[in-house]
Structures are given as structure tokens and as C-alpha cells.
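User:
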Amino acid sequence: MIYSINIIMNSEPDFSKFTLEDWKKYGEEMKNSGNESSANFDSNEKQSVIIEIRAGTGGDEAGLFAKDLYRMYSRYGQTKGWKERILDSNPSTIGGYKEIIFELTGAGVYDELQNEGGVHRVQRVPKTEKQGRVHTSTATVAVLLKPKKTEININPSDLRIDTYRSSGAGGQYVNKTESAIRITHIPTGLVVTCQSERNQHQNKEAAMSLLSARLLRMQEESDLSKLTEERREQIGWAKRAEKIRTYNYPQNRITDHRIEKSWHNLEKIIDGDLEPIIKSFKK
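Assistant: Predicted structure:
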């Protein structure tokens, strides 16, 4: 089966308004729609997810926040024994990330992180702020379940593959060969890139993994959009841009707006202690 999907890229359930009951309904809707790749799985099964973090509003501070979120998920993954691989990154000028895409593999990784997707907001005094004023910035997180090879089939004739010289870290290897890969999926217009690996073959493999995950997500969203208006209203259909979580540094508090719950010890959570938040979505 070749997916040729035509949907609005930014349309999806408004996860910021989900209650715990809504999450259960969402899983049932996905399961009943015939797409069980993410809604029906064994939590102990070895899985792979692709996480995309992008700086939102807030300039350089948003890039630093994106880096903080990456570190949070990376360190949490280390405590769980998950394997990590960076697929692509675009560093900012002051040490943050405009964008970073990475893969985590291990037992139950999707079960643990599936609720992290959405807009994350931070309120804090930036290091570059001389007046001590609190700034608000955002970053977006997308969590994609990496498809198994049997779940999605991509027609090679639907792809345009370009190579270019890597511009990232890599010392003597950078700009010596055209090892970076850009893949365009012509039917949908999706474009993915990868330049984090040493050779072209590895970058192509990583880019194809990312493309497959995005196509599977598009298929799931397309399936969900076909549900009746009544069902969509039950799970809260609206714009994606609304925040799901706020990290308030002056008050040392993280608040998840979907379940209206807060946690203190913000620095500890940012350093990778996500367990309290993860468990709240499992109750």
C-alpha cells in the first residue's frame, strides 16, 4: 500500500485540552479506525520513537529551552536504558537548538513518551536579560512512533533524493564529501534531512526512518479526521498551537494544563526526572 495523503499539516486534536478520559477515548478512536500502530501495543515491547523539538516564539531563549527539553528527554532515556541516536540538528548561535530530531529505542518508550507532544512554554529570566525581567518562550515537541517495515510501504519513484555537504559538527569529515541527505516525498511534499552520521548510507537510512514516521502520523491524523463531528468534539478538536505544559522557573513549578496538575522541583525534572509526570498519565 502506497500512502498518498492530502491533509492540513497543522490539523490534529488539541491535546492541550485533553483530560485523562479524553486520552482513553482517543486511543479507542484510533484503534476502532483500523490504525492500531500507536493505539494498540505491548508496553513492554521494544519500540523506537522519533522526537522532534523545535524552538518556537522567544528568539534565542526559545532555542535554549529547546536544548533543555532535549536534555530532559535524553537523560530520562538514559535512566530507562534506552538507546539514543541524533538524526538531525540545527544549533543556534548561542548554544541552543533551532531544531533537533533524535531517536530513542527501548522497552515501552512510546508508552512512556506518547503524551509529550505539543507546545511547551517556559517562563524565566534569560541569562542575557540585564534587567531581571521574566520572559516567556515556547518550543514544540512531536513524538512519532517509528513504523515497523511492514506498517508502511514507500514507493521509491515517489522520492527525490539530494545529497549535499554536511554543515554540522564532525571535525575533519565536515564539508569533505556530500554525505548529508535530503529526501522529498513528492506526493505529500514532506521533506526530511539528515547529516548527523558519518556516511551517506547511514544518513539515508536515518532520513527514511524519519520520513516513514511522519507518513504514518499523517495517515493516523487522516483516519482520525474521518470520524464524525460528534466524536471529534468529544476529544476536543482545535488548533495545535495551544500550550500543553508550562515551566515556571520563578515559582519552581511545572504545570500540565491537560490534566491541571503541577509539580515542584523544576530543575530536577528538567534534569531528567520525568517519572512523576509520566505516571500521572498512566493513572
